[in-house]
Amino acid sequence: MDYTNLDPQTAKEYYKRGNAKYDANDYAGAIADYNKAIELDPKYAYAYDNRGSAKYLLNDCAGAIEDYNKAIELDPQNVGAYNNRGNAKYDLNDYAGAMADFDHVIELDPQYPNAYICRASARYDLNDYAGAIADYNKALELDPQDTGAYFARGNAKYNLKDYAGAITDYDKAIKLAPQDKVYYNNRGNAKKDLKDYVGAIADYDKAIELDPKNKVYYYNRGISKKNLGDYAGAIADYNKVIELDPEYARAYNSRGFFKYNLKDYEGAIADYDKAIELDPQDADTYDNRGVAKKNLGDYAGALADYNKAIELDPQYADAYNNRGIVKKNLGDYAGALADYNKAIELDPECAEAYNNRGLAKKDLKDYSGAMADYNKAIELFPQYTRVYDNLIELYEELNQPALAEEILRLKQKNCPDK
Length: 418
Prior knowledge:
The chain is mostly helical and 418 residues long. 78% of the residues lie in helices and 0% in strands. The chain contains 24 helices and no strands.
């Protein structure tokens, strides 16, 4: 029966016509009919519940919650009303309130899979990924064909750095829904983090095939191409990103980085300039531009960029290290030493900063201090060939050929291909 053409007289008839309008996506019309049903029968619990759902779909979460409250007051066993109210609270970022409602749904009906899914979403947004996975496990136990649950569980595993487990879930989601581009993108991300860049690119290719206008897929594919050393291919992807979104500052920054690696320093700087124009608060871009300027011998310009990066992010260890390099090149060894000290304070595992500090100490004739820093750099990164060369050079200058020979042997052992 077509209830949309019904001439209702009773609360139930208004309710049915409201449902028909709801199913036809006429939520405002549905609310008008639910209003009339409630006017005729103020204790009509389902009318409150469905009116709440119509309000929810019109983004009136507060109004929806009021209706769900009334539906629950009239029928405390209404599982759907608790679940719906939990969703509305979730959308208002009331995660604790949402979880309390989902808990109640599960208490009333432990076989209600959607409650586990919804509670998992709240836990996920509270960064309780393990708790989210437990709920997704239960939901999938109840409904093994729930594609979204596999995908969401994969995302939770990804956030716990269980990339292999995430891929298994994404595989299952893709098998159930092979036309969903987001599933391929996220599986590509997990493969990338496992350093399977070829596999990641294949997934990004598929995502792009399904949605060729999505800049994110090109951006991600560019990262994997860069990791394979294909800077030209990465640049092509970022050209596409910028074509799709000319205001995407991060794409200019990344393309600049790839141009830098191709020794196109001027092209890199042009991209960094654009990125800074679009986002003048991004410390990374200033640091990157400083490196390019340094390679062009523009030490003053590089110094200005590193200063700005540090102003924006005083905890930016790389910027201190890079500024130290420029200061050393300008003959300011004491200033360089201070910057390297700060870089090491912020990142005690940075082998490059120890190596650079060793160079500055050597220039200041603090040879024992230089040796200590070079050795620390080797301890942190045994494959760091340049630091072996620096230490060998220092021993040779100090007329200690036996120690120089010892370091050469260590280099040959740890860096056999260098």
